[in-house]
Structure formats: structure tokens, C-alpha cells
Design a protein that fits this description.
α1 packs across α3, α1 packs across α4 and α2 packs across α3. The protein contains 5 helices and 2 strands. The chain is mostly helical.
Length: about 130
Amino acid sequence: MQFDTSSPIWVQLVREFSRRIVTGEWAAGEKMPGVRELAADLGVNPNTAQRALAELERLELCRSERATGRFVTSDDERIDAVRAELAADATDEFIRRVRGLGMVRDRARTLLDERWDSNEHHTTDVPAGGGG
């Protein structure tokens, strides 16, 4: 994962971990990787990973069980709500970018429809929460 300087690393990790949950990479009810494992895999300080995981708990995307670790929520409604939030963030970023290019709404819709159809069988990891 590449980090940018526009927001704290722990915030970027919250977005990334949220993305992993809503896409099913980390399945509902599944045990999550531990703090040290995540920190080592991502090349971050364990305290940074811990802060991101604590925020995921606050957002009710995971829960801690004493002595057994953290588990992804099994609350499908909560996961769907976060999916919608991430999609809204990505949509807002798209709108900002195409407006910045001077594109009008109808042309942007047409472009989106064309690209949606041409990318139907392709999935790409997009930075959650937009990005630059």
C-alpha cells in the first residue's frame, strides 16, 4: 500500500481496512490479522495499525474478543452502509475531477455509462475515500 501526505497514515489504513471488509476480502465474522502482522505487512508502526483498528471498532466494523483477537462484524447492514459511504466518496471525487476538466453533467453521465460497460468484468483497487 502506498501512502500519501494528504492525510494521516492511520486514516488511510481505516479506509483500506474498510475497503477490505466491504469487498469481502475480510469476510463478515472472520478473524482479522493481528496488529503486528498488519504493521509488518504494511510497513507501519504497530501503534499506527492499532489506532486504525480501534477506529474500525468505533465504526462498528469489527469487534475485539479478549484473548482471541478481532473479528469483522457480521452486521450486513453496517457493512452495506460503509460500502455506500465509500461509494459516495468515490463519486464525489469523480465529480470534482470531471468538473475540474470543464465537463458538463450529461457528458459525464455518458462517459460513466460507457466506461461502466467497458469495465464490467474488471475490478481495480481504488483508494478508498477518493485519493488525490
